[in-house]
Amino acid sequence: MQTINLSKSFKVRHLLIALALFYLVLVLLLPAIAVFYEAFHKGVGPFIEALGDRNFQSALQLTIVMALISVPLNTVFGLCAAWVLARNQFPGRALFLSVLDLPFSISPVVAGLMIVLLYGKNGWIGSWFSALDVQILFAVPGMAIATIFVTLPFVAREVIPVLEELGPEQEEAARTLGAKDWQIFWRVTLPNIRWGLLYGVLLTNARAMGEFGAVAVVSGSILGKTSTLPIFVEQEYKNYQTEAAFGAAVVLALLAVVTLILKEILERRTGHHKSV
Hints:
The chain is an all-alpha fold.
């Protein structure tokens, strides 16, 4: 009887593994293979030619600019927010945490519309910039605001649990020995949270480079001017420029692969993978 039960458990386990693998192949692996096939099935020449396209290079530059703007700002904000939330108990703390998670729950398209309403010419803030002849929407500032919005919580959400687990004891000990606040941060806090911080920065960078919805709403999706790589892919595909579209998609996929490799390395260093 026990042998029969073990045999059934063995079969169920392998059946579940097979179903999980089939689901991953169907949803993730096959689409990725299809993108690479479409990009290279006519050879490397069209892919290289697509990379030399002026609109592609403009989109790549804008994508990098969005990451260069949003990642440092959200890293500084995330560190400050994480320290305040992990080290202090105050009225409204739960509300603060909920507001911090809003970019996770709000649709990027809705986020883009919110920015349009706020920074449009007739918006609450947009009218001030219009008076100063500063263009926010359909320009880099609006795209940067949208990218910052959607990538806001990643660093804070990765650092908060690390700070809570660490506790304030080491920082208080350093303070009693005469260390100043900046010395405590650089020599005590930062070394302890460094892997969680780097993990949050990687996630922020990946989302900044891959964001489409919010940026598309505020940018106007003008090729060569206000299009990032995801928008370039969508626009070129609509214009039947499939080699250019899939070439850009391959570049985005490679950027995602690099991010995943770095993420896996960080998870192994922090031991995060053991808890999954």
